[in-house]
Amino acid sequence: MTTWLVCPANPGDGHAQHASAPWADQAAWLPSALATTNATVERSTRALMGTQVDMVAHGEQQHALQAAMAQAWQEMARLASLMTRYSPDSIVSRINRAAGVHAVSVPAEVMPVLRAGQKLAVQTQGAFDITVGSLKAWHFSEGQASLPTPQEIEAQRRLVGYRNLVLNERTGTAFLRQPGMALDLGGVAKLPILEAGMKMLQRHGVEHALLNGGGDVLIAGQLHGRAWRVGLRDPHAPERMLGMLELQGQAIVASSGDYERFFMVQGERQHHILNPATGRPTHGPHGVSLLARDAASVNGLGTAIMVMGSAGAAKLLQNRPEIQAALVAERDQSVWQTPGMTALLRPVV
């Protein structure tokens, strides 16, 4: 539910630009807003993790920025290759092939992601579950969209269950107990990968940067001494925005929604966020945006809230003041916000 705008925040400027695409939120680059400074802004875009990832870095030396960005891209691509289920050589694919047979050694970079998924599954009583990779009959790519039969859904749903993923910290292994089970880390790997990219930028001296991957936005520092601007899209009309956040320092906006990858069947939206309990698309909020300072606080939480619904989200967030949230409700299309989000979200005029 996020788009981002690479321009300095200006309290006197009521104009915002944005664009959208079926697979990923797009950025609006406003060169006129940057004409008053000699500082360099470097921007690059690549396909990664099944979505479009945008990187923007701001600093004094163009060559240093480009070198740092190259290192960040390399690190993110390396981690993505480990955790994708679409490559037969990935660790996730190896775990899936060994389901019901034997445990698989897991690289040190991947084990924390698996642990995070398991921890969130326990916290949400299975509303979030990384074993939804078993629901293989669903396809949402353009030209490949298909509605599984009830029999297919039920057979695959029985294989979903985080309790049957065994993580052995001592041996550093992962094991899926039942043949046919499969991991899908799409809901929990993207933020750690983006965060690794940001850390690589910072390790190479970049203090001011923005990373956007399919609606998850990480920011560091400022842009020309002012805040970065991040817009929250309206799930019912993605060409519009609910409001604008002006962020600086360290911040993460993580979003989930039912309007990016979907197809319609008899007037009903079939979208890519699946309920582990039913094997079918969720009927919770149409969109969720979460704001925090670190990835661990919100990683996977948007997906869980899409499953749990607005009431479950309020209960889940009531004792977590470090997280601010905006939800577009499933029934009356109303917007529910935490008090902190209400204070921070500016209207777009």
Structure, briefly:
The protein is of the alpha+beta class.
Explain this structure to me?
This protein is of the alpha+beta class and 349 residues long. The protein has helices at 62-83, 91-97, 111-123, 150-157, 190-203, 295-298, 301-317, 339-344, and strands at residues 2-6, 19-20, 25-29, 40-48, 51-59, 104-105, 165-168, 173-176, 208-213, 216-221, 228-234, 237-247, 249-257, 262-265, 268-271, 287-292, 324-328, 335-337. It contains 8 helices and 18 strands. The strands form 4 sheets. Strands 4-5-9-10-13-16-17-18 form an 8-stranded antiparallel sheet. Strands 2-3-1-11-12 form a 5-stranded mixed sheet, with no helix packed on it. It has a 3-stranded antiparallel sheet with strand order 6-8-7, covered by helices on one side. Helix 1 packs antiparallel against helix 5 (190-203). The longest helix has 22 residues, at 62-83. The relative contact order is 0.16.
Architecture blueprint of SSEs:
Layout: E1 2-6, E2 19-20, E3 25-29, E4 40-48, E5 51-59, H1 62-83, H2 91-97, E6 104-105, H3 111-123, H4 150-157, E7 165-168, E8 173-176, H5 190-203, E9 208-213, E10 216-221, E11 228-234, E12 237-247, E13 249-257, E14 262-265, E15 268-271, E16 287-292, H6 295-298, H7 301-317, E17 324-328, E18 335-337, H8 339-344
Parallel strand pairs: 1-3
Antiparallel strand pairs: 1-11, 2-3, 4-5, 5-9, 6-8, 7-8, 9-10, 10-13, 11-12, 13-16, 14-15, 16-17, 17-18
Helix pairs in contact: 1-5
